[in-house]
Amino acid sequence: MTPPGVQGVTYGQTVSIDPASVESPAAGEQLTLNINITGGMNVAGYQVTVTFDPTALSDASIANGDYLPTGAFVAPLPATDTSVGLGATAVGATSDGDGTLATVTFTVKEVKGSTIGLTNVLISDPDAAAIDVTVQGGMVTGPALEMPMMPEMPAGVEFKCFPGVHFNDGHR
């Protein structure tokens, strides 16, 4: 979120989590998200670190997607209990347009809302010069809260009001 009074900067290339919001699967199940690029131009490499809440997700793994040309050199970044990362570079070729840079998979530890962040995002051209990029993280949502239903009155039970209590329909 951009602080009040500060304008955010948007660049032509965007790296984002897809889907941006997803309902959490059950505990013990896997959750897979894509790290996508849109509007890429002359992209020869990338680096990205995915951050997550370790009380909600665990056992993170990350794999190169199909955006960069075949034969790209791929290297994992050091992982922690709260992050996993990857870097990749193509030699002698570039990619343009939209696609999947990487795929990240988690095991759901607890079904609850949490944030998936993207940090240390670098997109580079064939000369290894950084390309400006807009970054958008994602969210895992917990179960929807259910509104309690008013119980039905058993047959033969009369609803009594306190004196002076008024209902919208004018009854006392």
The geometry reads as elongated
The H-and-E topology, N to C, reads as EEEEEEEEEEEE
Unreliable stretches covering 5 or more consecutive residues: 1-10, 165-172
How large is the radius of gyration? 24 Å
Tally of alpha and pi helices:
0
Helix content: under 10%
- The pLDDT mean sits at 83
Tally of structural domains: 1
Q: What's the count of strands?
A: 12
Strand residue percentage: over 45%
CATH topology name, in short, is: Immunoglobulin-like
Kindly, what is the distance between the CA atoms of the first and last residues, rounded to a whole number of angstroms? 51 Å
CATH architecture: Sandwich
* SS-based class: mainly beta
Largest sheet: 7 strands, mixed
Domain Cohesin: 19-129
Protein name: Cohesin domain-containing protein
Pfam family, one: Cohesin
Organism: Geodia barretti
Written account of the structure:
The protein has no helices and twelve strands. With 172 residues, the chain is mainly beta. It has a single domain, classed as Immunoglobulin-like (Sandwich). The strands form two sheets. Strands 2, 4, 6, 7, 9, 10 and 12 form a seven-stranded mixed sheet that branches. Strands 5-8-3-1-11 form a five-stranded mixed sheet, with no helix packed on it. A hairpin with a 5-residue loop joins strand 9 and strand 10 (130-131). The relative contact order is 0.27.
